[in-house]
Protein 1
Amino acid sequence: MAEAAGLFPVADPAPKTPGVEGHRARMRKKLLTAGPEALLDHELLEMVLFLALPRRDTKPIARALLGRFRDFAGAVSAPEADLRAIEGLGDAGIAALRTVQAAALRLARTELREAPLLNNWSRLEAYLTAVLAREPAEQFRVLFLDTRNRLIADEAQARGTVNHTPVYPREVVKRALELHATALILVHNHPSGDPTPSRADIEMTEEVQRAAEALGIVLHDHLIVGRGAVLSFRREGLL
Protein backbone atom coordinates (compact mmCIF):
# COMPACT_ATOMS: atom_id res chain seq x y z
CA MET A 1 0.00 0.00 0.00
CA ALA A 2 2.84 2.38 0.85
CA GLU A 3 4.40 1.77 -2.53
CA ALA A 4 1.11 2.44 -4.30
CA ALA A 5 0.80 5.69 -2.38
CA GLY A 6 4.15 6.81 -3.72
CA LEU A 7 6.06 6.53 -0.42
CA PHE A 8 8.61 4.20 -1.91
CA PRO A 9 10.21 4.46 -5.36
CA VAL A 10 8.77 2.37 -8.15
CA ALA A 11 11.05 0.76 -10.74
CA ASP A 12 11.52 3.07 -13.70
CA PRO A 13 10.25 1.53 -16.95
CA ALA A 14 12.95 3.40 -18.87
CA PRO A 15 16.10 3.29 -16.66
CA LYS A 16 19.09 5.46 -17.39
CA THR A 17 21.83 3.91 -19.41
CA PRO A 18 25.36 3.71 -17.95
CA GLY A 19 27.27 6.96 -18.23
CA VAL A 20 24.20 9.18 -18.66
CA GLU A 21 24.59 10.86 -15.27
CA GLY A 22 28.24 11.65 -15.91
CA HIS A 23 27.36 13.08 -19.32
CA ARG A 24 24.66 15.26 -17.81
CA ALA A 25 26.97 16.48 -15.06
CA ARG A 26 29.56 17.49 -17.65
CA MET A 27 26.95 19.41 -19.66
CA ARG A 28 25.69 21.20 -16.53
CA LYS A 29 29.24 22.23 -15.70
CA LYS A 30 29.80 23.42 -19.27
CA LEU A 31 26.63 25.51 -19.15
CA LEU A 32 27.40 27.05 -15.77
CA THR A 33 31.07 27.77 -16.39
CA ALA A 34 31.15 28.65 -20.09
CA GLY A 35 27.61 29.97 -20.58
CA PRO A 36 24.75 28.95 -22.89
CA GLU A 37 26.60 29.95 -26.06
CA ALA A 38 29.08 27.13 -25.39
CA LEU A 39 26.35 24.52 -25.93
CA LEU A 40 25.64 23.14 -29.39
CA ASP A 41 22.03 22.77 -30.50
CA HIS A 42 21.86 19.06 -29.67
CA GLU A 43 23.37 19.68 -26.22
CA LEU A 44 20.86 22.41 -25.44
CA LEU A 45 18.01 20.14 -26.53
CA GLU A 46 19.40 17.36 -24.35
CA MET A 47 19.45 19.64 -21.32
CA VAL A 48 15.88 20.78 -21.90
CA LEU A 49 14.71 17.21 -22.34
CA PHE A 50 16.50 15.67 -19.41
CA LEU A 51 14.72 18.09 -17.09
CA ALA A 52 11.44 16.63 -18.39
CA LEU A 53 12.69 13.05 -18.91
CA PRO A 54 15.06 12.47 -15.96
CA ARG A 55 15.25 8.70 -16.43
CA ARG A 56 15.89 8.56 -20.14
CA ASP A 57 18.95 9.00 -22.30
CA THR A 58 17.86 12.13 -24.17
CA LYS A 59 20.75 12.26 -26.62
CA PRO A 60 19.01 10.04 -29.25
CA ILE A 61 15.84 12.12 -28.94
CA ALA A 62 17.78 15.37 -29.37
CA ARG A 63 19.56 13.97 -32.43
CA ALA A 64 16.24 12.84 -33.91
CA LEU A 65 14.75 16.31 -33.37
CA LEU A 66 17.63 17.98 -35.17
CA GLY A 67 17.47 15.42 -37.96
CA ARG A 68 13.79 16.22 -38.49
CA PHE A 69 13.66 19.98 -37.73
CA ARG A 70 17.24 21.10 -38.57
CA ASP A 71 17.99 23.35 -35.58
CA PHE A 72 17.03 24.25 -32.01
CA ALA A 73 14.50 26.88 -33.04
CA GLY A 74 12.85 24.48 -35.47
CA ALA A 75 12.56 21.81 -32.77
CA VAL A 76 10.99 23.97 -30.08
CA SER A 77 8.50 25.52 -32.52
CA ALA A 78 7.57 22.40 -34.51
CA PRO A 79 3.89 21.41 -34.72
CA GLU A 80 2.79 19.04 -31.99
CA ALA A 81 1.73 16.35 -34.47
CA ASP A 82 5.24 16.32 -35.95
CA LEU A 83 6.85 16.21 -32.51
CA ARG A 84 4.77 13.16 -31.60
CA ALA A 85 6.42 11.30 -34.46
CA ILE A 86 9.75 11.47 -32.60
CA GLU A 87 10.31 8.22 -30.74
CA GLY A 88 10.59 8.62 -26.97
CA LEU A 89 9.42 12.22 -26.79
CA GLY A 90 5.87 12.02 -25.40
CA ASP A 91 3.82 14.59 -23.50
CA ALA A 92 6.52 15.54 -21.00
CA GLY A 93 9.15 16.20 -23.67
CA ILE A 94 6.75 18.14 -25.88
CA ALA A 95 5.65 20.24 -22.91
CA ALA A 96 9.30 21.02 -22.12
CA LEU A 97 9.94 22.22 -25.67
CA ARG A 98 6.79 24.32 -25.63
CA THR A 99 7.83 25.85 -22.30
CA VAL A 100 11.15 26.93 -23.78
CA GLN A 101 9.39 28.46 -26.79
CA ALA A 102 6.89 30.31 -24.60
CA ALA A 103 9.63 31.62 -22.32
CA ALA A 104 11.68 32.91 -25.25
CA LEU A 105 8.71 34.72 -26.78
CA ARG A 106 7.67 36.18 -23.44
CA LEU A 107 11.16 37.54 -22.83
CA ALA A 108 11.27 39.06 -26.30
CA ARG A 109 7.82 40.62 -25.85
CA THR A 110 8.86 42.11 -22.51
CA GLU A 111 11.91 43.71 -24.11
CA LEU A 112 9.70 45.24 -26.79
CA ARG A 113 7.56 46.93 -24.15
CA GLU A 114 10.51 48.83 -22.73
CA ALA A 115 10.97 51.28 -25.61
CA PRO A 116 8.96 52.81 -28.49
CA LEU A 117 8.59 50.18 -31.21
CA LEU A 118 9.42 52.60 -34.01
CA ASN A 119 12.88 53.05 -32.48
CA ASN A 120 13.38 49.32 -32.04
CA TRP A 121 12.53 47.96 -35.48
CA SER A 122 15.18 45.25 -35.78
CA ARG A 123 14.16 43.73 -32.44
CA LEU A 124 10.51 43.87 -33.50
CA GLU A 125 11.23 41.99 -36.72
CA ALA A 126 13.26 39.39 -34.84
CA TYR A 127 10.39 38.86 -32.41
CA LEU A 128 7.78 38.55 -35.15
CA THR A 129 9.97 36.11 -37.06
CA ALA A 130 10.22 33.94 -33.94
CA VAL A 131 6.45 34.06 -33.46
CA LEU A 132 5.29 33.53 -37.04
CA ALA A 133 7.96 32.34 -39.48
CA ARG A 134 7.34 28.64 -38.78
CA GLU A 135 3.56 28.76 -38.46
CA PRO A 136 1.98 26.25 -40.89
CA ALA A 137 -1.15 28.40 -41.45
CA GLU A 138 -1.72 32.11 -41.88
CA GLN A 139 -2.15 34.11 -38.71
CA PHE A 140 -3.18 37.75 -38.50
CA ARG A 141 -1.91 39.72 -35.51
CA VAL A 142 -2.25 43.32 -34.42
CA LEU A 143 0.24 45.26 -32.30
CA PHE A 144 -1.63 47.93 -30.34
CA LEU A 145 0.45 50.98 -29.35
CA ASP A 146 0.00 53.90 -26.97
CA THR A 147 0.61 57.60 -27.59
CA ARG A 148 4.38 57.07 -27.21
CA ASN A 149 4.31 54.11 -29.62
CA ARG A 150 4.98 51.62 -26.84
CA LEU A 151 3.44 48.18 -27.07
CA ILE A 152 0.17 47.78 -25.19
CA ALA A 153 -0.73 44.36 -26.56
CA ASP A 154 0.18 41.86 -29.27
CA GLU A 155 -2.89 39.84 -30.13
CA ALA A 156 -3.77 37.19 -32.69
CA GLN A 157 -6.98 38.41 -34.30
CA ALA A 158 -7.55 35.53 -36.70
CA ARG A 159 -6.10 32.25 -37.94
CA GLY A 160 -6.76 30.85 -41.36
CA THR A 161 -5.52 28.38 -43.94
CA VAL A 162 -2.15 28.08 -45.62
CA ASN A 163 -2.94 31.06 -47.85
CA HIS A 164 -5.91 32.99 -46.42
CA THR A 165 -6.96 34.60 -43.16
CA PRO A 166 -10.28 36.44 -42.73
CA VAL A 167 -9.78 39.96 -41.35
CA TYR A 168 -12.54 42.30 -40.18
CA PRO A 169 -11.43 45.95 -40.00
CA ARG A 170 -14.28 46.91 -37.65
CA GLU A 171 -13.14 44.30 -35.13
CA VAL A 172 -9.56 45.56 -35.31
CA VAL A 173 -10.62 49.14 -34.63
CA LYS A 174 -13.09 48.09 -31.93
CA ARG A 175 -10.30 46.28 -30.07
CA ALA A 176 -8.02 49.30 -30.42
CA LEU A 177 -10.66 51.47 -28.74
CA GLU A 178 -11.08 48.92 -25.93
CA LEU A 179 -7.33 49.04 -25.27
CA HIS A 180 -7.15 52.85 -25.63
CA ALA A 181 -4.59 52.35 -28.39
CA THR A 182 -3.71 55.29 -30.61
CA ALA A 183 -1.68 53.41 -33.23
CA LEU A 184 -1.50 49.99 -34.85
CA ILE A 185 0.92 47.73 -36.66
CA LEU A 186 -0.68 44.90 -38.63
CA VAL A 187 1.21 41.63 -38.98
CA HIS A 188 0.61 38.36 -40.74
CA ASN A 189 2.69 35.50 -42.07
CA HIS A 190 2.94 33.71 -45.40
CA PRO A 191 3.57 30.01 -44.75
CA SER A 192 4.90 29.69 -48.31
CA GLY A 193 7.91 31.69 -47.15
CA ASP A 194 7.44 34.43 -49.76
CA PRO A 195 6.42 37.70 -48.05
CA THR A 196 5.22 39.37 -51.26
CA PRO A 197 1.77 40.88 -50.55
CA SER A 198 -1.25 39.70 -52.48
CA ARG A 199 -3.90 42.01 -53.89
CA ALA A 200 -6.15 40.90 -51.02
CA ASP A 201 -3.44 41.88 -48.51
CA ILE A 202 -3.19 45.35 -50.01
CA GLU A 203 -6.96 45.88 -50.13
CA MET A 204 -7.42 44.68 -46.55
CA THR A 205 -4.69 47.06 -45.36
CA GLU A 206 -6.41 49.99 -47.07
CA GLU A 207 -9.72 49.06 -45.41
CA VAL A 208 -8.16 48.88 -41.94
CA GLN A 209 -6.37 52.19 -42.52
CA ARG A 210 -9.61 53.94 -43.51
CA ALA A 211 -11.48 52.52 -40.51
CA ALA A 212 -8.67 53.49 -38.13
CA GLU A 213 -8.21 57.01 -39.48
CA ALA A 214 -11.93 57.70 -39.09
CA LEU A 215 -11.41 57.33 -35.34
CA GLY A 216 -8.06 59.07 -35.09
CA ILE A 217 -5.99 55.89 -34.90
CA VAL A 218 -2.75 55.73 -36.88
CA LEU A 219 -1.76 52.66 -38.89
CA HIS A 220 2.05 52.70 -38.83
CA ASP A 221 2.71 49.64 -40.96
CA HIS A 222 1.67 46.20 -42.14
CA LEU A 223 4.39 43.57 -41.87
CA ILE A 224 4.36 40.23 -43.69
CA VAL A 225 6.61 37.58 -42.20
CA GLY A 226 8.09 35.04 -44.60
CA ARG A 227 10.83 32.49 -44.14
CA GLY A 228 13.85 34.57 -43.22
CA ALA A 229 12.39 37.87 -44.46
CA VAL A 230 9.94 40.51 -43.26
CA LEU A 231 8.25 42.83 -45.77
CA SER A 232 7.13 46.29 -44.65
CA PHE A 233 4.27 47.96 -46.52
CA ARG A 234 5.65 51.37 -45.56
CA ARG A 235 9.16 50.57 -46.85
CA GLU A 236 7.64 49.25 -50.07
CA GLY A 237 5.56 52.40 -50.58
CA LEU A 238 2.28 50.50 -50.12
CA LEU A 239 1.16 52.53 -47.13
Protein 2
Amino acid sequence: MRVAFHHIAYQPLAVCNALSMERLVATAGLAGLKPGARVMDIGCAYGEVSIHLARAFGARVTAVELDPVMAEGTEARIKAAGLSDRIAVRQETSAAALAAQPPFDLIVAIGSTEPAGKGLREPAAVFAALAEHLTPGGALLWGDLFWKEEPPTPLRQLVETGGFYVSHDEWQAAARTAGLEIVSAEISGDFEWAAYRTGMETAIAGWLDANPDHADAPSVAATASRVKMMFDFGAPYLGFGHYLFRKS
Protein backbone atom coordinates (compact mmCIF):
# COMPACT_ATOMS: atom_id res chain seq x y z
CA MET A 1 0.00 0.00 0.00
CA ARG A 2 1.18 3.49 -0.81
CA VAL A 3 2.97 5.36 2.00
CA ALA A 4 1.61 8.88 2.51
CA PHE A 5 2.97 11.83 4.46
CA HIS A 6 0.35 11.57 7.22
CA HIS A 7 1.05 7.85 7.76
CA ILE A 8 4.54 8.80 8.94
CA ALA A 9 4.13 12.30 10.34
CA TYR A 10 1.24 11.39 12.65
CA GLN A 11 2.79 8.28 14.19
CA PRO A 12 4.59 10.01 17.10
CA LEU A 13 1.84 12.54 17.84
CA ALA A 14 -0.59 12.14 20.72
CA VAL A 15 -2.89 14.68 19.04
CA CYS A 16 -2.39 15.21 15.31
CA ASN A 17 -2.72 18.97 15.61
CA ALA A 18 -1.31 21.89 17.58
CA LEU A 19 -2.96 20.76 20.79
CA SER A 20 -1.56 18.92 23.80
CA MET A 21 -3.25 15.79 25.08
CA GLU A 22 -3.30 17.27 28.59
CA ARG A 23 -5.29 20.26 27.42
CA LEU A 24 -7.62 18.13 25.30
CA VAL A 25 -8.45 15.81 28.23
CA ALA A 26 -8.95 18.79 30.54
CA THR A 27 -11.40 20.35 28.07
CA ALA A 28 -13.21 17.04 27.62
CA GLY A 29 -13.56 16.93 31.41
CA LEU A 30 -15.83 19.98 31.23
CA ALA A 31 -18.41 17.82 29.43
CA GLY A 32 -19.18 16.02 32.69
CA LEU A 33 -18.77 12.55 31.25
CA LYS A 34 -19.79 9.66 33.47
CA PRO A 35 -18.35 6.13 33.29
CA GLY A 36 -19.84 4.37 30.29
CA ALA A 37 -20.51 7.63 28.43
CA ARG A 38 -20.70 7.20 24.66
CA VAL A 39 -18.03 9.10 22.73
CA MET A 40 -17.28 9.33 19.03
CA ASP A 41 -13.77 10.32 17.94
CA ILE A 42 -13.98 11.48 14.30
CA GLY A 43 -10.78 11.15 12.30
CA CYS A 44 -9.03 9.29 15.10
CA ALA A 45 -5.71 8.86 13.20
CA TYR A 46 -3.73 6.33 15.29
CA GLY A 47 -6.24 6.30 18.14
CA GLU A 48 -4.36 8.07 20.92
CA VAL A 49 -7.21 10.48 21.70
CA SER A 50 -9.69 7.59 21.86
CA ILE A 51 -7.37 5.67 24.20
CA HIS A 52 -6.89 8.63 26.53
CA LEU A 53 -10.61 9.40 26.70
CA ALA A 54 -11.47 5.77 27.44
CA ARG A 55 -8.89 5.70 30.23
CA ALA A 56 -9.59 9.12 31.73
CA PHE A 57 -13.38 8.92 31.82
CA GLY A 58 -14.26 5.24 31.53
CA ALA A 59 -15.94 6.12 28.25
CA ARG A 60 -17.05 3.72 25.53
CA VAL A 61 -15.53 5.14 22.37
CA THR A 62 -16.34 4.74 18.70
CA ALA A 63 -13.11 5.60 16.86
CA VAL A 64 -13.75 6.54 13.22
CA GLU A 65 -10.91 6.53 10.68
CA LEU A 66 -11.35 6.23 6.92
CA ASP A 67 -7.66 5.69 6.11
CA PRO A 68 -6.99 1.92 6.19
CA VAL A 69 -3.35 2.26 7.30
CA MET A 70 -4.22 4.42 10.27
CA ALA A 71 -7.33 2.37 11.12
CA GLU A 72 -5.12 -0.73 11.30
CA GLY A 73 -2.64 1.17 13.45
CA THR A 74 -5.45 2.26 15.74
CA GLU A 75 -6.59 -1.33 16.20
CA ALA A 76 -3.04 -2.36 17.14
CA ARG A 77 -2.63 0.45 19.70
CA ILE A 78 -6.01 -0.22 21.26
CA LYS A 79 -5.18 -3.91 21.62
CA ALA A 80 -1.79 -3.07 23.16
CA ALA A 81 -3.54 -0.74 25.61
CA GLY A 82 -5.94 -3.51 26.64
CA LEU A 83 -8.97 -1.45 25.66
CA SER A 84 -10.50 -3.51 22.86
CA ASP A 85 -13.62 -4.02 24.99
CA ARG A 86 -14.16 -0.24 25.34
CA ILE A 87 -13.09 1.17 21.95
CA ALA A 88 -14.63 0.10 18.65
CA VAL A 89 -12.88 1.11 15.43
CA ARG A 90 -14.97 1.88 12.34
CA GLN A 91 -13.15 2.28 9.02
CA GLU A 92 -15.69 4.41 7.21
CA THR A 93 -16.79 8.00 6.76
CA SER A 94 -17.98 9.89 9.80
CA ALA A 95 -21.36 10.42 8.11
CA ALA A 96 -21.84 6.68 7.78
CA ALA A 97 -20.69 6.03 11.34
CA LEU A 98 -22.97 8.73 12.76
CA ALA A 99 -25.97 7.47 10.81
CA ALA A 100 -25.46 3.93 12.11
CA GLN A 101 -25.21 4.84 15.80
CA PRO A 102 -27.54 6.26 18.48
CA PRO A 103 -26.68 9.76 19.80
CA PHE A 104 -23.42 10.34 21.65
CA ASP A 105 -22.64 12.10 24.91
CA LEU A 106 -19.53 13.60 23.34
CA ILE A 107 -18.38 13.97 19.75
CA VAL A 108 -14.70 14.80 19.24
CA ALA A 109 -13.62 16.42 15.96
CA ILE A 110 -10.07 17.76 16.12
CA GLY A 111 -8.81 18.93 12.72
CA SER A 112 -11.22 16.56 10.99
CA THR A 113 -11.96 16.87 7.27
CA GLU A 114 -15.68 17.27 6.54
CA PRO A 115 -16.71 15.58 9.83
CA ALA A 116 -20.45 16.09 9.24
CA GLY A 117 -20.50 14.76 5.68
CA LYS A 118 -18.89 15.18 2.28
CA GLY A 119 -19.16 18.71 0.91
CA LEU A 120 -20.47 20.20 4.17
CA ARG A 121 -17.98 22.86 5.26
CA GLU A 122 -19.89 25.97 6.35
CA PRO A 123 -19.25 26.12 10.12
CA ALA A 124 -22.80 26.64 11.42
CA ALA A 125 -24.13 23.92 9.12
CA VAL A 126 -21.40 21.51 10.26
CA PHE A 127 -22.12 22.19 13.93
CA ALA A 128 -25.88 21.84 13.45
CA ALA A 129 -25.45 18.52 11.64
CA LEU A 130 -23.16 17.13 14.35
CA ALA A 131 -25.48 18.37 17.10
CA GLU A 132 -28.24 16.16 15.68
CA HIS A 133 -26.15 13.20 16.82
CA LEU A 134 -25.69 14.40 20.41
CA THR A 135 -27.79 13.41 23.39
CA PRO A 136 -29.60 16.25 25.22
CA GLY A 137 -26.86 18.02 27.14
CA GLY A 138 -24.22 16.26 25.04
CA ALA A 139 -21.12 18.11 23.93
CA LEU A 140 -18.99 18.70 20.85
CA LEU A 141 -15.23 18.96 21.40
CA TRP A 142 -14.07 20.88 18.34
CA GLY A 143 -10.55 21.87 17.36
CA ASP A 144 -9.36 23.49 14.16
CA LEU A 145 -7.26 26.16 12.55
CA PHE A 146 -8.48 29.74 12.62
CA TRP A 147 -7.39 32.92 10.86
CA LYS A 148 -5.85 35.47 13.21
CA GLU A 149 -6.24 38.03 10.44
CA GLU A 150 -7.21 38.02 6.79
CA PRO A 151 -4.50 36.01 4.97
CA PRO A 152 -3.03 36.63 1.53
CA THR A 153 -5.12 34.90 -1.13
CA PRO A 154 -2.41 32.33 -2.06
CA LEU A 155 -2.09 31.28 1.58
CA ARG A 156 -5.85 30.90 1.96
CA GLN A 157 -6.00 28.80 -1.20
CA LEU A 158 -3.17 26.57 0.03
CA VAL A 159 -4.49 26.10 3.56
CA GLU A 160 -8.12 25.63 2.57
CA THR A 161 -7.45 22.83 0.10
CA GLY A 162 -8.95 20.38 2.57
CA GLY A 163 -11.07 22.58 4.79
CA PHE A 164 -12.74 25.91 5.48
CA TYR A 165 -11.50 28.19 8.24
CA VAL A 166 -12.76 31.31 9.97
CA SER A 167 -11.65 33.46 12.89
CA HIS A 168 -11.64 32.39 16.55
CA ASP A 169 -14.73 34.54 17.19
CA GLU A 170 -16.47 33.25 14.07
CA TRP A 171 -16.10 29.60 15.17
CA GLN A 172 -17.93 30.56 18.36
CA ALA A 173 -20.59 32.58 16.51
CA ALA A 174 -21.24 29.60 14.25
CA ALA A 175 -21.77 27.39 17.29
CA ARG A 176 -24.32 29.86 18.70
CA THR A 177 -26.09 29.96 15.33
CA ALA A 178 -26.32 26.17 15.48
CA GLY A 179 -27.97 26.41 18.90
CA LEU A 180 -24.95 25.30 20.91
CA GLU A 181 -23.77 26.77 24.20
CA ILE A 182 -20.09 27.72 24.44
CA VAL A 183 -18.58 26.04 27.48
CA SER A 184 -14.92 26.66 26.65
CA ALA A 185 -12.95 28.46 23.92
CA GLU A 186 -9.16 28.44 24.05
CA ILE A 187 -6.20 29.07 21.77
CA SER A 188 -3.16 26.81 21.58
CA GLY A 189 0.17 28.24 22.68
CA ASP A 190 3.53 28.39 20.96
CA PHE A 191 4.77 25.27 22.79
CA GLU A 192 1.88 23.24 21.35
CA TRP A 193 2.64 24.47 17.84
CA ALA A 194 6.33 23.67 18.33
CA ALA A 195 5.62 20.14 19.59
CA TYR A 196 3.25 19.50 16.67
CA ARG A 197 5.61 20.73 13.99
CA THR A 198 8.75 19.22 15.50
CA GLY A 199 7.06 15.85 15.93
CA MET A 200 6.02 15.72 12.29
CA GLU A 201 9.27 17.04 10.86
CA THR A 202 11.42 14.68 12.94
CA ALA A 203 9.34 11.65 11.94
CA ILE A 204 9.48 12.54 8.25
CA ALA A 205 13.21 13.25 8.28
CA GLY A 206 13.90 9.93 10.02
CA TRP A 207 11.78 7.97 7.54
CA LEU A 208 13.35 9.65 4.50
CA ASP A 209 16.85 8.95 5.85
CA ALA A 210 15.95 5.30 6.39
CA ASN A 211 14.11 4.89 3.07
CA PRO A 212 15.89 7.03 0.46
CA ASP A 213 15.04 4.64 -2.39
CA HIS A 214 11.41 4.00 -1.46
CA ALA A 215 9.03 4.56 -4.37
CA ASP A 216 6.96 6.96 -2.27
CA ALA A 217 9.91 8.95 -0.88
CA PRO A 218 9.63 11.77 -3.48
CA SER A 219 5.94 12.36 -2.79
CA VAL A 220 6.45 12.21 0.99
CA ALA A 221 9.31 14.71 0.74
CA ALA A 222 7.28 17.00 -1.51
CA THR A 223 4.33 17.01 0.86
CA ALA A 224 6.62 17.65 3.83
CA SER A 225 8.14 20.62 2.03
CA ARG A 226 4.69 21.99 1.18
CA VAL A 227 3.45 21.61 4.76
CA LYS A 228 6.55 23.32 6.16
CA MET A 229 6.20 26.19 3.70
CA MET A 230 2.53 26.57 4.59
CA PHE A 231 3.23 26.80 8.31
CA ASP A 232 6.33 29.00 7.91
CA PHE A 233 4.50 31.46 5.69
CA GLY A 234 1.26 31.15 7.62
CA ALA A 235 2.65 31.61 11.15
CA PRO A 236 1.49 35.26 11.46
CA TYR A 237 -1.99 34.35 10.22
CA LEU A 238 -2.80 30.90 11.61
CA GLY A 239 -3.91 29.93 15.08
CA PHE A 240 -5.41 26.75 16.49
CA GLY A 241 -8.56 26.96 18.58
CA HIS A 242 -10.17 24.25 20.70
CA TYR A 243 -13.72 24.53 21.94
CA LEU A 244 -16.32 22.69 23.94
CA PHE A 245 -19.89 23.34 22.78
CA ARG A 246 -22.92 21.93 24.62
CA LYS A 247 -26.29 20.98 23.19
CA SER A 248 -29.16 22.55 25.13
